[in-house]
Design brief:
- This protein is mainly beta.
- The protein has one domain.
- It has a seven-stranded mixed sheet with strand order 5-6-3-2-1-4-7.
- Strand 1 and strand 2 form a beta hairpin.
- The radius of gyration is 11 Å and the shape is globular.
- It starts with a strand and ends with a strand.
- 22% of the residues are buried.
Length: 83
């Protein structure tokens, strides 16, 4: 799945400390969400800053969460920034 990161959010106070990268449109109208759980976050540095407004391609298993597609990513090699 490829798209432009339209909005990001690091929910540090939420259970699991998720980081959300919303593609093509900002939350809550995102076309697709990339989710990085807090336990894997340090591998990515500050993903909400690094990927914001960038074109990325993500590989992984697509699941549905609240009627919207998402990929849970645990390794940085699953996100590739496009030039």
């Amino acid at each position: 799945m490829c798209g432009k990161v339209a909005s990001t959010r690091y929910a540090a106070a939420t259970r699991g400390r998720p980081t959300f990268l919303n593609l093509d449109k900002a939350y809550p109208n995102q076309v697709f969400t990339v989710l990085i759980w807090g336990e894997n976050r340090e591998k990515f540095g500050s993903p909400e800053e690094m990927y914001r407004d960038k074109q990325i391609c993500v590989t992984g298993k697509i699941a549905e969460y609240k009627s919207a597609p998402e990929i849970v990513v645990s390794e940085p090699q699953n996100i590739e920034m496009q030039k």
